[in-house]
Design brief:
four-stranded parallel beta sheet; 8 helices; about 50% helix
Length: about 220
C-alpha cells in the first residue's frame, strides 16, 4: 500500500494519505472521518468500494463471517456516507460512488447474504440520490457483473458457472466505467451490454424463476 502511495506521489506529483483499517469492524468509519478532519482533507468524492462475498449454503456458513460481511458491505458504507454527506451538502457539491453489483437485482442462492447486501446498496443509493436532487450532490450505484479480480477466490466461488471458464472484464475497465458514471451523475450504472440486458429483463421474469436461474448460475 505504501509502495503504491509513493508511486502515485512520484508519477502525478500529488499528496497521498494512507490509513489502513478494517471497515468490517464496528467503529472504524469514524476513524476514517476523524482522520480526514485532523488532516484538513475536504472530501468531494467518496467511493465506497470495500466489500466481500462468501459462497455456500447459508445454514452451513459461519455466522460471524456473514455478520462481518453485512457490517462491511452495508453498515460501514451507509455510515461513511452519513458522515461525509453533510459536508458535501453544505458546500453544494460532491459525488458518491457506491459499488453494488448485478447481484443486487435478484436473490442469490449460494451467496444469499452477499446478494442481499448488494440489493441494499442499490436501493439505498437510489433513495438518497433522489433526496439529494437539486443539492449539487449526486450518488451513483455501480453494478458490475463478474469481474477479473481476486473476489471469486476469496468468496470460494471460482468454480461456479458465474466465474469458471469465462473471459471477464478487468477491474481497471470496471473502475473506469464507474468513475465516468459518477462524474456524469448517473444514478445506476450497470457495466457491460449483456449485464444491462439481463438486469433489464429481470423486470419481466417471475421472481421464483429468476431465483432458480440465479441458483443454476451459482452452482459449481
Amino acid at each position: 500500500m505504501n509502495v503504491l502511495a509513493e508511486e502515485l506521489r512520484t508519477t502525478f506529483g500529488i499528496k497521498v494519505f494512507v490509513l489502513p483499517l478494517d471497515l468490517g469492524v464496528a467503529g472504524q468509519s469514524e476513524k476514517v472521518f476523524n482522520y480526514c478532519i485532523d488532516n484538513q482533507l475536504e472530501v468531494d468524492y467518496l467511493i465506497n468500494n470495500a466489500g466481500f462475498g462468501e459462497f455456500g449454503a447459508f445454514h452451513e456458513s459461519d455466522w460471524h463471517r456473514q455478520q462481518q460481511m453485512m457490517e462491511l458491505n452495508m453498515t460501514s458504507l451507509a455510515h461513511l456516507t452519513h458522515l461525509f454527506l453533510p459536508g458535501m451538502a453544505s458546500r453544494r457539491k460532491g459525488k458518491i460512488l457506491n459499488v453494488a453489483s448485478t447481484a443486487a437485482f435478484q436473490p442469490g442462492p449460494g451467496m444469499a447474504v452477499y446478494f442481499a447486501t448488494k440489493s441494499f446498496v442499490l436501493l439505498f443509493s437510489e433513495g438518497i440520490a433522489e433526496e439529494l436532487s437539486g443539492t449539487g450532490v449526486t450518488v451513483t450505484a455501480l453494478c458490475p457483473g463478474a469481474t477479473e479480480s481476486n473476489f471469486a477466490n476469496e468468496a470460494k466461488a471460482a468454480d461456479s458457472r458465474l466465474f469458471k471458464g469465462r473471459k471477464l472484464p478487468t477491474s481497471a475497465d470496471v473502475a473506469a466505467f464507474g468513475i465516468n458514471a459518477m462524474l456524469r451523475g448517473k444514478r445506476v450504472a450497470v457495466h457491460g451490454s449483456l449485464n444491462k440486458f439481463m438486469t433489464f429483463g429481470l423486470r419481466f421474469v417471475p421472481r421464483n424463476m429468476a431465483t432458480k436461474v440465479s441458483a443454476m448460475i451459482m452452482k459449481k
